[in-house]
Amino acid sequence: MSRQDGLKETAYNREKAVAYARKWALSRNPKYYSFTGLGGDCCNFASQCIYKGAGVMNYTPLYGWYYHSPSDRTPSWSGVKYLYNFLTGANGVGPYATETDISSMQPGDIIQLASYLPEYHHTLVVLETGSTPAPDNVLIAAHSYDCVDRPLNTYAYKQIRFLHIEGVRK
User: Whole-model pTM above 0.90?
Assistant: First the structure.
């Protein structure tokens, strides 16, 4: 579908996002810097997965969503709150999401947690959901605490938010 601003809305490729997550959940893609030990690699990993499913980055300085190198990237590529702000607030090129509840989760979507900090600090990639998504049948992949096919209900958290990726603007 074309928009007045000339951008086309396309589907998010959930299969590609999940395949990438499964491939790199327990290791690191050498094309990307690992932020493990520097605040964590969870959001960097989630962004890589989303990029694989979206196929496009947003090169708007500061408020876009892109990665060229550790020193040439936007805060949204590797920062939990900035990724949330980009996905839920962007109107330009790139993936976009809505905050929803667990029942709308699909493979390739994003979950963010606040456990021991007063703000959200961990980002997970949804790999699978049951026919009715619930904490015991939503399986995730993540970095920082590397995992694949980990049930969501094995996490302890104070707050949780679910980001359903609606599509991609190109």
Answer: yes
